[in-house]
Amino acid sequence: MKGIKARYIHVIMAATTMFLLLTSSVQAAGGGETETHSIASTFFWIAIILLAAKLSSLVEHFGQPSVLGELVIGVILGNLVLIGIPFFEIPKGDSILVFLAELGVVILLFQVGLESNLAEMRQVGLNAMLVAVVGVTVPFVLGTYLAGPLLLPGLNFYTYLLLGAALTATSVGITARVFRDLGKLHSPEAKIVLGAAVIDDILGLIILAVVSAIVTAGSVSIGEIVWIVTKSALFLIVTIGMGLLVTPHISRLFSWINAGIGMKFTLIASFGLIFAYLAELIGLAPIVGAFAAGLVLEPVHFRHFKDPEIIDDLKKTLKGVNDTLKAPVLKVIEAHSKRHVEELIEPLVHFFVPIFFVMTGMAVKLESFFDPSILLVAVGITGVAVAGKLISGLAVTGKASKSVIGWSMVPRGEVGLIFAAVGKSLGVVSDEIFSVIVIMVIFTTLLTPPVLTLLLKPPPVPVPKEEVVPEAVGFGFGKGYEVWQHAFETHIGKKSTRQAKTLGIRGTHWKLPTKR
Asked: Tens digit of pLDDT for each residue in 102-133?
């Protein structure tokens, strides 16, 4: 153990030394940057950001999601200038990194769409719809018309709109992990929450589209708002409907050209990017189109492509094996085949999405929190964010736990950060408001897992107290229950062993029955 710890210390020291040498060389070359060096320095910053993001995954050892670590490491690196280290100010203005971060958002929403299942959403039906509608409407109204004007008086109404929109988001991935860890992923509460999360995302993106259009146009009439909502809904309905009809034929055509994994990957990624472009074309955010593309693509659409090599090998190995042994292996193969579309996109997610979160964290200005009034505002906004989602749990009908469902919808995570980034790009979210939203995301993300764990864990069963006879009365046996079990099984039999248990032989003592 000591050797392992020493080895880790040596690795950390070597990595730190290399990092310092690299940073000093970049700073030394910073004075006379040419266009070529600028591109090379971007390569360097991509590596640094990705490594920082992976180091931040240490938070997972403390039961927190990796997105929180990426956000926090970004906040730390972006504010080192406050202690005289301006090195990490360089990537903030890098246009290539900004582009990669925006591409990361599109890929993230595409992945969310891929992981969403329309069939499962229909199964949970009314409860999921009620939770989603209330969980979006109440936080938006509270943020726009109550918390915003009350805690941040005198600001532009568009700022309040973006604040309200940021409160509507839900990051159900954090909740899903808690359900999975506790073995509750197939509970009624989990099914309702996962179904509501899909509807929540759709409604949230529609609100974002409406708010963005209002901010961009300056002012819009009620009729224009209705048109934006209708346009957003029509886009989702038409693209999903057409996608479901057209995708199988396009997939078959491309598989005829080349049925390899490379063609399959290209087709999947192209769908996400084209749908993002179509959304932008009609005035919606590209992330809306990427999300719709993810909903459209189903594993069955790619059945004409070759299976992954490992699945082919397994199928060949199973030839001649009897059905009893083959069945569980085929079940595993089928599960992996269905997930192959998502697994192909995961390398893109691992590369681009951390850049978005780290860059978002670096945009937070901690000096704004030196003002106690801003901290109070952040706490107040967090309270409103929590209350709005807890109210959504009250909309549930039936026996499902309202408190579990309400708390499950509380984490804001990556979607709230996307809303904040959009607001900042539109110029209606200041550094202070942006920091408040980021802190709200951090608080709700930290708060939810322990509360859900407390609500989902069954209460401990009280153990009745028994009178314990001193060890000497037990004929001096102090070696535990195993001694008694061996003795009784050897000389009397297992039946008598069970009888001995009923007489009170437990643990390291011989206990007499409790007196009545």
From this structure: 898 888 888 877 877 666 666 667 888 899 89
Tell me the whole-structure pTM to 2 decimals. 0.66
Sequential DSSP letters for 471-505: GGGGTT--S-HHHHHHHHHHHT-HHHHHHHHHHTE
The residue written with tokens 């709230």 in the block is 416
- Residues 444 and 385: beta-carbon distance below 8 Å: yes
List all residues 6 or more positions away from 259 whose beta carbon is below 8 Å from its beta carbon: 304, 305, 306
**279 and 288 Cβ atoms separated by less than 8 Å:** yes
Query: What amino acid occupies position 411?
Result: P
The alpha helices in 218-285, defined as continuous H runs, are 222-257, 261-281
Query: What was the pLDDT predicted at 511?
Result: 44
Closest CA to 139 of 387, 377, 379, 376: 387
Give SS3 for 122: helix
Q: Which residue has the tokens 């060949």?
A: 316
N-term to C-term CA, the chain = 53
What pLDDT, in 10s, does the model give residues 493-514?
444 444 444 444 444 444 444 4
pLDDT in tens, 133-187: 999 999 999 999 999 899 988 888 888 988 998 898 887 666 766 676 667 767 7
Distance CA 52, CA 48 (A): 6
Distance of CA 272 to the CA centre of its chain: 19
Rounded to the nearest 5 degrees, what angle is found at the Cα of 347, between the Cα atoms of 342 and 352? Answer: 110
Whether the predicted pLDDT of 476 surpasses 60? no
Q: Taking Cα atoms as reference points, which of 309, 318, 316, 301 lies closest to residue 336?
A: 309
Output phi, psi for 506, to 5 deg: -140, 145
